[in-house]
Design goal:
Blueprint: H1 2-14, H2 37-46, H3 62-74, E1 84-87, H4 90-101, E2 107-112, H5 116-125, E3 128-135, E4 138-139, H6 141-150, E5 154-160, H7 173-186, E6 189-193, H8 207-211, E7 216-221, H9 223-226, E8 231-234
Parallel strand pairs: 2-3, 2-5, 5-6, 6-7
Antiparallel strand pairs: 1-8, 3-4, 7-8
Length: 243
């Protein structure tokens, strides 16, 4: 009930032109007016009209996945196109991750405060949601260690990189390194939500860059830059079937 009230209030504020909803996660519309997505649409049409009326590759448009490979290389993350899955927004990417990795009664560690929509997906999956307090430089490592030790059935740690929708914080390199040590010791995966990557410096610390997708999954999105629901998930090659 409380989440519904917050969502309704956010929508009301978003419709007021003199308000900037900093909790929404979107840049002002005026910043996006010069984005000419029609140019890219015309380029896709020129590749062949027939392709517009047939099913494409189930991983998504290959040229875009190849572009994302280069984009991630700029973040020092090495990923092949066959490790990339395009989705209809970051929410769908997170939903796919939850459906694949989380079983009923599994414990999932999440940022606190965190993203309410993610909590709804986890509740529907029957997961046991355990919050880990988050400070200005990332999760409380002592609390994270305790939560992992107490949760024998823990499956994943869902972590955000500087998500303005919840708390606008980042993570320090020292904490990112410690998180990887703990997840290795407890055999967990880390899902790193970096939806606002285009609004942040490339030098921002990313757990996936340290881990190179060994036990991490990276979720990114174009939504907050060009307001088009297109996102992607990078996963260890063993997690994505080629057939």
């Amino acid at each position: 009930m409380r989440d519904g009230f917050r969502l309704a209030h956010a929508r009301t504020v978003a419709n007021k032109p003199d308000f900037l909803n900093v909790g929404e996660g979107f840049p002002p519309v005026a910043w996006l007016e010069e984005t000419r997505l029609d140019h890219f649409h015309q380029r896709v049409v020129r590749t062949g009209v027939a392709s517009l009326f047939r099913y494409g590759n189930r991983f998504g448009y290959l040229p875009l996945r190849q572009h994302l490979q280069q984009k991630l290389a700029a973040y020092e993350i090495d990923a092949a196109p066959q490790q990339i899955v395009l989705t209809h927004g970051a929410n769908q990417a997170m939903n796919m991750v939850v459906r694949y990795f989380v079983r009923a009664s599994d414990t999932v560690l999440v940022d606190d405060p965190g993203y309410y929509a993610l909590f709804g997906k986890l509740k529907l999956s029957g997961a046991n949601i355990v919050g880990v307090p988050r400070g200005v430089d990332g999760p409380d490592i002592a609390a994270l260690d305790r939560r992992m030790s107490e949760s024998a059935s823990a499956a994943a740690l869902l972590h955000a990189v500087g998500r303005t929708q919840s708390d606008a914080t980042d993570i320090s390199a020292a904490k990112a390194h410690r998180i990887l040590q703990l997840t290795e010791a407890h055999d967990l995966i880390v899902v790193e939500n970096d939806s606002l990557a285009d609004l942040k410096p490339r030098s921002a610390t990313r757990i996936c860059a340290l881990d190179q997708l060994h036990r991490t999954i990276y979720v990114g999105s174009f939504r907050n830059r060009c307001r088009r629901r297109c996102a992607w998930a990078f996963s260890p090659a063993m997690r994505i079937s080629p057939t």
